Amino acid sequence: MDSFSSPSSGSSSNFSSEDLMGQLKTQLAQAYAEEFTVRGKCFDKCITKPGSSLSGSESSCISRCVDRYIEATGIITKALFSMQR
């Protein structure tokens, strides 16, 4: 069950604005903390032979990987804020 699902007892639970804001803040904090791990994920995916410089394909791969991650983070942030309203 994700943090936005109702309890398993079957009753629907209404969140107050403060509860929802607290959950949004927690979710955003987790998303921003995970942003720092993108370096490791993109590095592992794109750098096959670590050396003193990046090849053209490695550089392109890292650029695309980081761009996708930033785009995904923006989509998640917008979705969380739209749920608040």
From TrEMBL:
The keyword Membrane applies. GO terms for biological process: protein transport. It comes from the Eukaryota. It is found in: Mitochondrion inner membrane. The keyword Protein transport applies. Residues 37-80 form the Tim10-like domain. It is a peripheral membrane protein. GO terms for cellular component: mitochondrial inner membrane. Keywords: Chaperone, Disulfide bond, Membrane, Mitochondrion, Mitochondrion inner membrane, Protein transport, Translocation, Transport. It holds the Pfam family zf-Tim10_DDP. The twin CX3C motif contains 4 conserved Cys residues that form 2 disulfide bonds in the mitochondrial intermembrane space. Heterohexamer. Belongs to the small Tim family. Mitochondrial intermembrane chaperone that participates in the import and insertion of some multi-pass transmembrane proteins into the mitochondrial inner membrane. Also required for the transfer of beta-barrel precursors from the TOM complex to the sorting and assembly machinery (SAM complex) of the outer membrane. Acts as a chaperone-like protein that protects the hydrophobic precursors from aggregation and guide them through the mitochondrial intermembrane space. This is Mitochondrial import inner membrane translocase subunit. It comes from Kalanchoe fedtschenkoi (Lavender scallops).
